[in-house]
Amino acid sequence: MKKKKYMLFLLVFFVLAGCQNRKSDNVVRVALPYSETIQNPDKNYYIKWLSKETGLTIKPVIIHQKRCREYLDALFASEVEADAVLLGENFTLEKKDLQTYIERNVLEKLSNGMYYYPDCGNYRELHCGQTMWINTGWLHALSLSVPRTTKEFKAVLKAFRDKDPNGNGRKDEIPLIGSLDGYEYNPVEFILNSYIVNDPFRSRFYVKGKREEYAPFKKEYREGIAYLNQLYSEKLLDKRCFTYSRRQLQEIVNSQEDLVGIFTAGSVADILYQGNPEIMARYIHVLPLKGPEGEQHAITRKVNDMVGAIVPKHAKNKKGAIKFLEKMISTEGSLIARFGEEGVDWEYSDGHEVSLFGEPSAIVTKNYLSNIPQNKHLNGIGPMDVPIKYLRGVTWNGVNSDTEYIDARAEMGYEAFLSKTVSKKEYNEALCNFVDDFTYDLVKGRYDVWDNGKWNTFLKRARHWLGEKNDT
Prior knowledge:
With 472 residues, this protein is α/β, with parallel strands linked by helices. The chain has 16 helices and 17 strands. It has helices spanning 2-25, 45-54, 68-76, 99-103, 136-141, 150-162, 187-192, 219-233, 246-253, 277-280, 318-329, 331-339, 388-391, 403-414, 429-443, 452-466; strands at residues 27-33, 57-63, 84-86, 117-120, 126-128, 131-135, 174-176, 205-208, 211-214, 260-265, 283-286, 300-302, 307-310, 346-348, 363-365, 384-385, 394-395. The protein has a six-stranded mixed sheet. Strands 7-10-6-11 form a four-stranded mixed sheet. Keywords: Signal.
């Protein structure tokens, strides 16, 4: 009798253990960075769709650390439960940054034969990295045209400063403003391209012929700074360019008081609130300004191999994590990750129309969801692989305030000014911090840009950072 009871106990134990294991195999803990644009990850349309398609129970775990490497170092040094880690927004790594983790054997090799799934769903390989946006209401109020040269640009800024374009009777207009939260938000970088090829994303290196050149070593770079110093000293370039966060820039540009004349950004959606069509329609793009010597360039961004997701070696459910990520990287999953819910936020085009980029249409957007509070997708966080025919095949939906339409018009206008080849130099943070600080100090007039002693000291230190010998 005791033996029968014991056998029954073992049977029940193994049945329960098996159920528990099956339940554990069905749960995938997905770590993703906190984003103000994702309203509720647990109820997110994309997460629920992925759960339904894979048959997995997805448990989002929010990462509150802001530095990706710090989080990963802590993750791999502990037993923190995360079966998959999604990257994106400001929480990013490039492929080359994974090498140290591969050497430490803390990453799982995935079904694609690599240690990560990529994020290549937002841009084509070479695209415009910074666009200037101008307040059309102010232009119309003062009967001004969109500036085409640095000379015309300065005249427009003066009119914005002096002639009350917002019509409230107060001198509260901000002609030109930006932020230090990214090169794309700083108009200094845009204007330097009217004097020389200025690519801060590649440590200010550029290709001329077959040679790599360094912009800060050229007299044209210094001349561009001198022009910017004029704008700053005449209160045309606002001092808050060097203190504001992107969030502060957003707030002042979107103010109902209509305070800002010109700003720069990667996408208009990075700054303007898309829920307000009036503000979205207020700004149009300005083509790269032609400088005094005819220079006219746009910052060209080359899409690097960005990491979309990884699976830790110590993950408890690696099989489930890989299944989940494979569905994300599929074309169907990637289109939801990029555009939202099919039939609601976008639909396939019949192909008879021409896209915003002049190519056969593939997608018609109904709602633009990027960089706004929503719960349809993860705002670019995580792996995706959107085929180029969809990235270049977005058709205008007839709404002038649609972000896809506004950005595409700017992108098409800037194409003639993009570099065909970009430098192979990587971003050197220490060098760039030094050069950025000196450049911005000169713009603000802390030092005289024509002080040869200061300039030569700068050149010596920059050559030291670059490992070059000084001739003087």
